[in-house]
């Protein structure tokens, strides 16, 4: 593990929430205690729930975890009825996790307990356990956040899961396999499946049926942001706009969400299949729900800026935007050249980690940022980057790119986000990858 776990947890205030270390040094979360969500029972008769976050890089899916868990607690699930599989909090910038923790605390919550990594094997084991624990009259709620896609050859939709160590690829959960897992044992129960990844319409068409209502927030060929969907949908039962309804149902929540997204400029092409329509009336109305996510047509959006622009404005990095700054960068005896692009999710993630390390380290080499063009997932070299290629004799085909510059030459680099192996949880797949603070620090060292 690259970081001192106890130090990390103390910095963001999680040690008080029952998180600890095991004796052999591999990290894990301690068992749930009544310290989690004190205003809610640990178990109820409503049923069981699984929250899957398949994205181990983009932080907004971690926010979706908190939204989903608070929603489930509010409508009658106990804290121990909810299992969460995801990359751990340590895989993300401390400042962002700190903001998440502060928001949760203000609403009377702690950050959710994460059981283990969201790999396919861990998902299979967990779903088998949850389905086995369900009574006939109980409900199973499955929420999947992250990225999705369609395999045209196999004609199925899939959700991308975490990348287990030594497998060399991201795991995938297909719509057909999820349907098989939910029907395993032929136990009679009612279920809800919500998948908010793009291009995942098969999760509604294949998984939904007689006893399970399945929902995707995108239709075939459509890509819609899960940030807006999750924020609106998981607020629905607690929203003042529905207070005049005694029994808010799942279909009410979807109808209200669709209208809210359309009005806000974040149209959702929601697909739904199945006849199960549970009531979502809150057992307890939380004092505060989570975040304020402004829709695309909100004027607040215009004030947002990429992390790297914030760092440049604060004088912590230097943007190479003219010949003078370009010459200055190449004249440095020791420096880091960072090639990135606005609109690149991996770049924004790495920029957040750079911000964290630059804040914590008193002395670092100067960081020069070369902005590339990034459109529809493809890199097109901007003039300053093209010049960098010519002068250094390298080829830049992807972003982000970190290069260490010493005495007129490149001495090391990472043609991606620098990562290391991390052990977490007690489920079958314990090891995966996360951003390496140690490797970033080595790049920045004077």
What do you see in this structure?
The protein is an alpha/beta fold and 446 residues long. The chain has two domains: 5-298, Rossmann fold (3-Layer(aba) Sandwich), CATH 3.40.50.1460; 305-444, 3-Layer(aba) Sandwich (Glutaredoxin), CATH 3.40.30. It has 13 helices and 18 strands. The chain has helices at 5-11, 60-74, 94-106, 120-133, 175-183, 202-205, 226-233, 250-264, 307-313, 323-331, 345-360, 383-392, 437-444, and strands at 47-53, 82-85, 139-145, 148-151, 156-160, 172-174, 190-195, 212-216, 271-273, 318-319, 334-340, 367-371, 373-375, 378-380, 401-406, 409-414, 419-423, 431-435. α2 (60-74) links the parallel β1 and β2. α11 crosses α13 (437-444). The protein is elongated, with a radius of gyration of 23 Å. The relative contact order is 0.13. The model is unreliable at 1-36 (pLDDT under 50).
Specify the CATH class of the largest domain: Alpha Beta
* Assigned CATH architecture of the largest domain: 3-Layer(aba) Sandwich
Can you tell me the residue ranges where pLDDT is under 50 for at least 5 consecutive residues? 1-36
Helix content: 25-40%
Strand order of the largest sheet: 2-1-3-7-8-9
Structural class: alpha/beta
Note the beta-strand portion.
Answer: 15-25%
According to DSSP, the number of beta strands is 18
User: Total domains, how many?
Assistant: 2
